[in-house]
Q: What sequence folds into this?
C-alpha cells in the first residue's frame, strides 16, 4: 500500500544447493533461514545422524532412531528450504549444476558441499568386506549384528580353536572411535552378557585394539593417551600400538610377522573425503579433502564452498589445521550460511557486497569416552580424566541430543542404563541362523 | 549327610527342546523353571518380539528394540535353560531329534513346537516380492523403508501419473493387522508429514484397504466391523470389501476387472503355519496347522506338543476353535510347560503320572486399534468402540511392554507421542538413493 514507487525490481531469488545433511550442511541451511533464497538440501539418507554416538548403536546401547531425525522434519518450518533424497555424483562448476547419480541435475547459484568422509582402507578396498567401518546407520547396524552374532556362533561351536577365533574381536584404529568401540565391546563381553551363556565364558573373549602409531588418541596430550591405554587394559582390552596391519582376510589379521586368528575385524582406522571432491577440479590434500580459502570457498569459484570433514583449512587465528570434528563442522556450516545470507541480502537491496571474513575455529575442547565412568578430555588447555571427564561427556551428549530429539526422559533413561551396563538394543534383526553357520564354518 | 540310604537313584534329567521363542515357547520355558530338566530353546532370531505392536515399527512409531528383548536376557536367571540361535529344519519323532538347517541335530525327550505362522500368499509365492508381509522385525523394517521411500520418490517425480502410482498404498487384508497398518499409514500421510514436503501434497496419498470377505475384522461383531470401516473412512482410507486380489506385480494390483496402479503393496491377508509341521507326519488343517489332542500333544506322540499359532485345537470347554492370538499362545505355552513340569516331577519321585488335563482357553476379550483414539473391542461379550476402546488398548499394551522391557518412562513417552501423531522412528537406514530411482522408474 505504501510501497516506495522507486523500489528496485526484486532480484530473482538465488538458488543455494547444499550437499549433505550432516552437522555442516544442516547448520548452513539453518543459518540461511531468513534469506531470500531457494535452498535445496540433498542427502542420500533421509535422516541427519548424531554421529558422535554412532558407536553406541554399533554396541547395542541405542537404536538408530535414538540418534537420528528425518532431515525434512528438522527443516519442516523453514519454508525457503526443500529436501531431496538423492546422491550427488559430480559437480560441474562451469555450468553450475550438480549431477545426481540417477541422471538428474540440480542447478545452483551458490553451492555448499558438506558430504563428509568415508571409510578408507588405505587403498586396500578388499579389506572392506572383512572389516566393516562406522560412518552411517547401516554401518552401525552391520557392526552390531556381526558382534552379537559372534557370541551366538561361539555358543554353538564345539571346536575350541574355532571358538577362540570367533571370540577374538579386533578393532583397527586407536582414535576416538576405535577406543570407544573396543571399550564398549569389552564391557558387553565382561559385564553385560556373561550370565546369559551356558557353554562359553564370554569374559574370555579377546578384544584387541590395534594402532599403527606409537599411542592412542593422538589428538590428546601424551599423559591422557597413556591414561586411556591403562583404562582400556583395566577393562580387559589388549592395546597394541606401533601395529600396522598388513593384511586382513576372513581368517586373520596380519601385522608384519604377527598373525591374529579372528573372525571379527572392525575398522576405525581411516577415513577419506568423499570422492565427489575430485569432480571439482581443484587441489586436494592427501586425505582427499578440498584445500579451501579462508572463507571456505574453493579456488576460482567464490560461489562454491566446502564445509565440515571435506574441507582442509587452517584456522585464520591460530594457523593450526581445523580438526575433523563435529563442532568444527557445525561452525563451518554456520559461517558459510551467515556469509551467504549477508551477501544475498546485500544484493537484494542493491548494496555493495563487503569483503568476506575468514573462518575462525572456536575450539571448545575435546573429549573421548572409554567406558562407563571413564573418559579423557582437554578443555581450555586443561587435561582431565576419569569420572569427571566422563560425566561431562555424558552431560554434553545428553544436552545435544535433547536439543535434537526433544525426548528428555528417553535420554535420561539411556544415561541411567549406560551407567549400569545395560544394553537396550541387543537385536539381530536380519535373518541370522545361516550367518551363524557361516561364522562357524571354515575358520 | 543324612540322605536316606534307600532313596532311588536319580532319574537322568530329561531333555526338553522348545522350538520358537515367541509367546508360546517362552511361556513354556518359563513354566518349566523349577523342573529337573535340561531345557533348550531354539529360535532363528536372537530376540523375542512383542508381535502385536510390530505394525508400529512398520509405521515408524517404535524402533525394533522397543518391542523386542534378547531371549537369552529373558532366560538369563533360569539356569536349567539354554538358548540356541538356529533354525529347525525337520523333526524326527521316531529318533527323537530335531534336525537343524546347518546340519546339526538336537536330541529331545520332550518336544514343544511353537514356531508360529508365516506370511502366506495363497500359493502365489511370486507375490511376496511385491507385497511384503509383517511377521518379524526384518519384515517391519522392510515395510517401514518402503513406505517412507515412496514419499521421497514422489517428491522427486515430475510425472503426475507416476507420482500418483507412487503415492497409492494398497494394504491387502482386512484383519487387525491390515486395519492397523492402513490406519497408521493414513495418519502419517495426513497428519504427521504434510508440512515437510514442498512439491507433493501428502494428504492426497491414496490408502486402500482390500478385504476379500464382506467385512473388516470378521472376528468381531458386525456392528464393530461397520464402526471400524466408518472410522477408517473418516481417516481417509478407502475400504474395499468383497475384493479378492487376482494378481500383484510391480505396477498394479488387480481385483478381477479392476486394476489399481500402485508401487506400494503390503500384505496382511494370510498366514500359514510353518512348514516344519509337515515333517511331523501327522494330519494338518487347511492352514497347515497341526491337529493336536486336547492336551496339545500330537497323535501317537505324547511327548511332542504343539503350541501357539501352529496348533489347531478346540477349546475343551466351549468346543470353539482357539484363535491364533497372543493370549491363546501364552496360555498354551504355560499349559504345556506346567503339564510337563508335573510329569517330570512325578517321574523323578517315582510317583505315577496322572492323566493329562485338557486345554481350556480363557478368552479375555479382543481389541483392535484403528488409529489415534479409535479402536474396537469386545470384552466379556460386550462390544465397545472409540476412545474408551483405544484407551484400554493402549493401557493393556503399555502394561505388557513394561513387564517385558522395564522401561516405564520410554513407554509413557511413546504413548504420549502416539497420542499426538508424532513418529519417533522415521528412518530409512539402508542405502536409499538408488531405491528412490528404482521406485520412480518403470511405472
A:
Amino acid at each position: 500500500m505504501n510501497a516506495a514507487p522507486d523500489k528496485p525490481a526484486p532480484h530473482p531469488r538465488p538458488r543455494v544447493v547444499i550437499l549433505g545433511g550432516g552437522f555442516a550442511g544442516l547448520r548452513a541451511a539453518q543459518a540461511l533461514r531468513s534469506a531470500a533464497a531457494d535452498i535445496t538440501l540433498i542427502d542420500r539418507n533421509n535422516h541427519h545422524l548424531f554421529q558422535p554416538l554412532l558407536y553406541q548403536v554399533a554396541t547395542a546401547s541405542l537404536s538408530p532412531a535414538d540418534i537420528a531425525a528425518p532431515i525434512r522434519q528438522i527443516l519442516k518450518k523453514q519454508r525457503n528450504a526443500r529436501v531431496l533424497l538423492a546422491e550427488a555424483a559430480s559437480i560441474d562448476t562451469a555450468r553450475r549444476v550438480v549431477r545426481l547419480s540417477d541422471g538428474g541435475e540440480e542447478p545452483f547459484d551458490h553451492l555448499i558441499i558438506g558430504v563428509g568422509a568415508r571409510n578408507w582402507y588405505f587403498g586396500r578396498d578388499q579389506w572392506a568386506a572383512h572389516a566393516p567401518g562406522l560412518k552411517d546407520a547401516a554401518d552401525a547396524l552391520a557392526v552390531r549384528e556381526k558382534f552379537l552374532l559372534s557370541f551366538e556362533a561361539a555358543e554353538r561351536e564345539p571346536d575350541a580353536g574355532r571358538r577362540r577365533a570367533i571370540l577374538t574381536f579386533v578393532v583397527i584404529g586407536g582414535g576416538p572411535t576405535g577406543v570407544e568401540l573396543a571399550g564398549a565391546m569389552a564391557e558387553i563381553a565382561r559385564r553385560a552378557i556373561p550370565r546369559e551363556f551356558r557353554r562359553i565364558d564370554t569374559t574370555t573373549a579377546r578384544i584387541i585394539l590395534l594402532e599403527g602409531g606409537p599411542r592412542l588418541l593422538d589428538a590428546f596430550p601424551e599423559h591422557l593417551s597413556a591414561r586411556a591405554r591403562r583404562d582400556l587394559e583395566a577393562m580387559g582390552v589388549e592395546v597394541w600400538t606401533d601395529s600396522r596391519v598388513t593384511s586382513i582376510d576372513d581368517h586373520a589379521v596380519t601385522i608384519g610377522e604377527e598373525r591374529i586368528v579372528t573372525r571379527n575385524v572392525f575398522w576405525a582406522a581411516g577415513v577419506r573425503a568423499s570422492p565427489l571432491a575430485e569432480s571439482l577440479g581443484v587441489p586436494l590434500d592427501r586425505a582427499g579433502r578440498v584445500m579451501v580459502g579462508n572463507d571456505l570457498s574453493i579456488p576460482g569459484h567464490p560461489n562454491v564452498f566446502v564445509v565440515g570433514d571435506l574441507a582442509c583449512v587452517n584456522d585464520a587465528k591460530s594457523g593450526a589445521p581445523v580438526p575433523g570434528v563435529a563442532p568444527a563442522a557445525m561452525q563451518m556450516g554456520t559461517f558459510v550460511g551467515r556469509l551467504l545470507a549477508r551477501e544475498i541480502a546485500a544484493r537484494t537491496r542493491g548494496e555493495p557486497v563487503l569483503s568476506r571474513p575468514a573462518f575462525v575455529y572456536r575450539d571448545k575442547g575435546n573429549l573421548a569416552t572409554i567406558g562407563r565412568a571413564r573418559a579423557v578430555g582437554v578443555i581450555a588447555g586443561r587435561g582431565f580424566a576419569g569420572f569427571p571427564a566422563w560425566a561431562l561427556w555424558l552431560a554434553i551428549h545428553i544436552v545435544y541430543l535433547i536439543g535434537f530429539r526433544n525426548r528428555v526422559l528417553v535420554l535420561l533413561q539411556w544415561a541411567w542404563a549406560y551407567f549400569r551396563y545395560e544394553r537396550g538394543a541387543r537385536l539381530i534383526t536380519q535373518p541370522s541362523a545361516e550367518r551363524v553357520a557361516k561364522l562357524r564354518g571354515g575358520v
